[in-house]
Amino acid sequence: MRIISFSQRWPKLLNQEFTTFRYPRKDKDWFVGEAVQIFFKSRSPQREKLGDAIIVNKVLRFGPRDDKEAQDDGFIDTADMERWMRKTYGEAKLWERINKLTLKRVG
């Protein structure tokens, strides 16, 4: 079971079902029906398992479409999300396609 890690304790992580944006993986991209483990800071001494989930939907596109979608992901609006992504991943990644994954907790 692969890990989806978060570097912040987003309020959405408490929900039974939530979305997250992830760049496609070069080794093996995420797929619908895949079981994943949700972690807070998986590569840190503060590592904490937050639970297990199933990917119930995957849409490949260019970022959030509107402010509500960015807010559902934990940001103020799309501009706030863009600033965070630019700081985290760099300018070049902003123009790449990204997966919008919907996760549903299990267990």
Protein architecture, described:
- By secondary structure, this protein is of the alpha+beta class.
- It has a single domain (2-106), classed as Archaeosine Trna-guanine Transglycosylase, Chain: A, domain 4.
- The protein is built from 2 helices and 5 strands.
- It has a 5-stranded mixed β-sheet, with no helix packed on it.
Give a summary of the structure in a few sentences:
The chain has 107 residues and is of the alpha+beta class.
| Helix-residue proportion | 10-25%
Number of domains: 1
Count of beta strands: 5
Q: What proportion strand?
A: 35-45%
Kindly state the mean pLDDT as a whole number? 89
Largest sheet entry: 5 strands, mixed
Q: Which blocks of ≥5 consecutive residues have pLDDT under 50?
A: none
Strand order of the largest sheet: 1-3-4-5-2
Give the CATH level 1 class: Mainly Beta
Radius of gyration: 13 Å
Through-space gap between termini: 14 Å
- From the helix content, strand content and strand pairing, which structural class follows? alpha+beta
- Figure out the total of helices: 2
Task: Give structural attributes.
107 residues, globular, Archaeosine Trna-guanine Transglycosylase, Chain: A, domain 4, alpha+beta, 17% helix, 5-stranded mixed sheet
